[in-house]
Specification:
Low-confidence stretches of chain A: 383-408
Largest interface: A-B, 87 and 86 residues
Number of domains of chain A: 4
Oligomer: homodimer
Strand order of the largest sheet of chain A: 3-6-10-7-13-14-15-16
Largest sheet of chain A: 8 strands, mixed
CATH topology of the largest domain in chain A: Rossmann fold
CATH class of the largest domain in chain A: Alpha Beta
Structural class of chain A: alpha/beta
Shape of chain A: elongated
Number of helices of chain A: 19
Radius of gyration of chain A: 28 Å
């Protein structure tokens, strides 16, 4: 079946949905028998718990990894990610990839022979949906003896399939990974698809879909592919690759033919595509994408995605304008609103939509960590590849030594002691997830982090800590009221654009908030300014005036007044200096202050 | 000629370049005779100083304003901007618009009869450039007896023509206005154009361009137009207009035909276009756009744009992804580097490339002010529609009263007195241009403003003050060394992300810098923090800690140390408090400090 030494894989075929057990499609039509082309890599373990389904995009096929013959010029389309020791590690996982329903690479589609007529289906093939593709994959998985998939992973159309899997078969999927995709095709995407279909259908060789497979609407299909190819790149990457360079000359030719290198590239993409793809499949698959709307039949996206039980990892790419990051964020926010396990990272890349095939390193770290933590959820740290929290012990009461050795993170020790066992915790500005990791280990909390820095959020995800790449200054409007027991904001208040809005939002989504900040009222700070007339630099305010990331200066007194004005209840105040906690003259003596806040007006501080 | 009462205009025709006086095209080919279709609005004044040429985009024509017949359903394509009392005011200006060379709306193009063969030119028509279009316009302008154009204005391809005008005929153009355009077609634009041309040429009805004008490659042309239309909108505007709504039903049809409203819209745009446009013209004009690169034949864009003598106004639109704002900014920065009169605004809009036709209000204010100040350059304020500086007198020495009545702008009075007559001045964070306006009036300076706020930069431009929409935190790298006598940064240092980089850049581009900031060492500030333990709020620091836009707190002492470390020379220090200037214990007594800085190390302050 597989030759792991040479990485030689053979595409396999199975016929499913034999009449009279045809599959009923979303349209109501029935279809069967259905031949499915698929490949597998690795070995299914005895528990059947390590199966990963990889879903391909528009023009892909079942050959995701390895070589079909030693003479192949190229390996499978996602060989960068799938293989021994790679992020979808075939020594650990049993990986399945099948050609989609309606395809032209071995699975039944419009170019297959219709057994009823013994002719090609052509336009007699029923219009299919992403749901129908997933339906056929489900039958394949059952045929392979897999009850539960550890993960379904896909980019673009493949991501639509993964999302559909989690919504349609919530008990059969433990996790999904959605790359460069959307919960529905938007107007612009439908428009591009429609132009492509028009180009195929306008070709005089199209002949209502009954073309000779050796001829057919080659010009129309090439035009559709050229157009689609532009949408897979980005303005920046096209500029970088081609600019305005000419093919054969440094002089304009003053003729109407193709002469810029970017034209040559598109001509080549179009010409290559018509030799390997079927025009009718192009019509059917783009139509399925246009039809895709996971919320269809539901009152809202929220209601639709509430079906999902799987852990979800969403990855978007900054320059992807076919499925722009906001489409991924719609999915992320909806799943977060539903209180499900969600992680998200928007990878900075100029590779456009194709980034999901090209940004191998940035994806790999997150994907491998996410998969391993799905496989072994109980072992938080042993399986954590970056060993984020290795050897880090959580003292029950912080010792002065512990405080002194981590002056900037004194508040972490305090926070760990303030959070109740088993709580739901949102950590804003979670950095690499150290605090959430400690809370998960010592308090058994369910955590979610939010972090603006891509590298840091990726580290969280790699360590099995659910985290969302995002900015509190853009608000928490995606989260419902009282969806967390605690919302944490550790030493971050002073760098926010709008700390008042942030606090209001935190108190809306959390029962309690724990906030810490450097105290500008600390005596060393006051003295430096008063006696020396200089902006202060201290251990907790370590920056020269012109380098400081802190946007705001505030004292304990300022913060108390602020809470009073905003009717925020102060449940606890803890004042920290280098020797530990202090209670006497805190606004003078504390370098850092930590507050437990609530909306209750039972304020412990008199005003 | 014109009926201004009814706004009825008649398209006129003139034949130019009669053999043997044919025009030599950029390709070297000669072409003549050339018929030109044009319209005019308003009356040329006796000095011939009020002529404005409006250039149309790809599918436009000479009919820019008014009605050709009272029965017309719609007025000309830019009637929102051109007319009595409109921003291109036909009671003040003589406006000309002509159909471009190669067009199909009355000017000679591939659908015209070639007098040599008495057949249509078809693909025998020579390949033309934007330069050739402008060449023909130049001949028309001479025919109309106009020596100098007050302005050449255009959007998209029209903007390319305007830029070409200023570069090719620098002495014939006093100003140009470039909307939603570029200095060259980039790789992505060439790619879209190439797909469109492929669709036309692949149509079996194209017949190498020798199609029957009543038939022709209608399907191919429609596909090209559908595709182009997507690039004229934005993802956001398509989502807003169409979303995923269906034409006739609330149920998917499960067929392969067009059914989404966005498809209907594109079908309609395609079908309408083929009835009014010629496919060969589409090939020639998109090729001319692909060929457009104003730097072609020069070593750099800088060298090419150095030819320009005209005042330049550049306007881009935030959601325009066909000609994204960075393309406009390339023009702006290059012209600024060349030390020419340049203004720029990036208008926030979700209308995509079409915004240049739709954002009438936002464009009008700037355009009308820019034109009137070009017509009457000497009358800065009388013609300034917003009357920005009306009645504002500049006292030679600021009186205590003046200081008290404008506490936040004390420094303006000082700065006016520090700047030499006739200097070149860059004002960073110029707001609505008040300081530059005062300096222009009382010191006869040549000013340039830089401002992040769109409304404020638009007010500057409307008032005849050259200003660039931009952010000092992104640097001044576009400006060459020592290109200004003074660079001003008034009460802005403390809000910058990177004040050190900003100051270094300011001292690179200016001989001297004048910087003012609120003094955090002022005794009231110190006392509030020291005795009351609160973040201070004063007249010069008027914000509560959580609302402050100030990112940095600094004192006079901090600033002196900072200058010393960066080897910045302090030529003058002026300390201001509410009673005027102060010299005694400035770091305690001054609310605001003003510095004249230079790279010379002749520091007046001892360290």
């Amino acid at each position: 079946m597989n030759d792991l030494v040479k990485n030689i894989v053979t595409t396999q075929y199975v016929t499913l949905a034999h009449p009279p057990e045809e599959i009923t499609l979303d349209s109501g039509a029935v279809l069967g028998p259905i031949e499915v082309a698929y490949e597998t890599y690795g070995v299914l373990n005895t528990e059947g718990s390590n199966a990963v389904l990889v879903c391909h995009a528009l023009s892909g096929d079942a050959h995701a990894a390895g070589w079909n013959t030693p003479e192949d010029a190229k390996p499978g389309w996602w060989d960068t990610m799938i293989g021994p020791g790679k992020s979808i590690d075939t020594t650990r996982y049993f990986v399945v990839c099948s050609n989609i329903l309606g395809g032209c690479k071995g699975t039944t589609g419009p170019s297959s022979i219709n057994p009823k007529t013994e002719n090609r289906y052509g336009l007699q093939f029923p219009v299919i949906t992403v749901g129908d593709m997933v339906h056929v994959q489900y039958a394949l998985i059952q045929h392979l003896g897999i009850k539960t998939l550890l993960s379904v992973i896909g980019g673009s159309l493949g991501g639509m399939q993964a999302l559909e899997w989690a919504a349609r078969y919530p008990n059969a999927v433990k996790s999904i990974v959605l790359l460069a995709t959307s919960h529905s095709n938007g107007a612009q995407q439908i428009a591009f698809d429609a132009v492509g279909r028009n180009a195929i259908q306008a070709d005089s060789e199209f002949k209502e879909g009954n073309y000779d497979p050796e001829a057919g609407p080659r010009k129309g299909l090439a035009i559709a592919r050229m157009l689609a190819h532009i949408t897979y790149l980005s303005d920046q990457s096209m500029h970088r690759k081609f600019g305005r360079t000419l093919r054969d000359s440094d002089q304009l030719g003053y003729h109407l033919e193709s002469e810029f290198n970017v034209e040559t590239y598109l001509d080549h993409q179009g010409a290559r595509f018509v030799n390997r793809f079927d025009a009718n499949t192009y019509l059917y698959v783009t139509k399925a994408m246009d039809y895709f709307d996971i919320a269809s039949g539901f009152d809202s996206l929220d209601e639709s995605l509430a079906r999902i039980q799987a852990k979800v990892l969403v990855v978007s790419f900054s320059s992807d304008w076919l499925f722009p990051p906001y489409m991924s964020q719609d999915i992320v926010h909806t799943i977060a609103r539903n209180g499900k396990d969600i992680s998200y990272c928007n990878i900075k890349s100029d590779a456009g939509h194709d980034a999901f095939l090209l940004e191998v390193d940035a994806i790999s770290q997150m994907l491998s960590g996410f998969l391993i933590h799905t496989l072994y959820p109980e072992r938080i740290c042993e399986n954590c590849p970056p060993k984020l929290c290795e050897g880090r012990d959580v003292p029950s009461v912080p010792t002065p030594e512990a405080v002194l050795s981590r002056p900037r993170r004194v508040d972490y020790d305090m926070i760990v002691n303030l959070v109740d066992e088993g709580s739901r915790v949102l950590d804003i500005g979670c950095s690499e997830g150290e605090l959430l990791c400690r809370l998960q280990r010592s308090r058994n909390i369910t955590g979610l982090g939010m972090e603006v820095d891509q590298e840091k959020v990726a580290r969280c995800i790699a360590c099995g800590i659910a985290a969302i790449h995002g900015d509190i200054d853009r608000g928490l409007s995606q989260l419902p009221d009282n969806s967390f027991d605690y919302v944490l904001l550790s030493m971050t208040l002073q760098v926010l654009k709008k700390p008042d809005l942030a606090l209001k939002e935190m108190l809306r989504v959390g029962r309690k908030c724990i906030v810490s900040f450097p105290n500008f009222g600390y005596w060393r700070v006051r003295s430096t300014l008063f006696f020396q007339g200089r902006a202060p630099v201290t251990a907790h305010l370590p920056y020269a005036w012109h380098e400081s990331p802190n946007r705001h200066v505030l004292t304990i007194k300022d913060f108390r007044n602020f809470c009073s004005k905003l009717h925020i209840g102060i449940e606890k105040e803890i004042f920290l200096h280098s020797d530990g906690e202090t209670r006497f003259l805190p606004n003078l003596r504390a370098e850092e202050a930590l507050y437990v806040l609530s909306t209750s007006e039972n304020n412990i501080v008199a005003h």
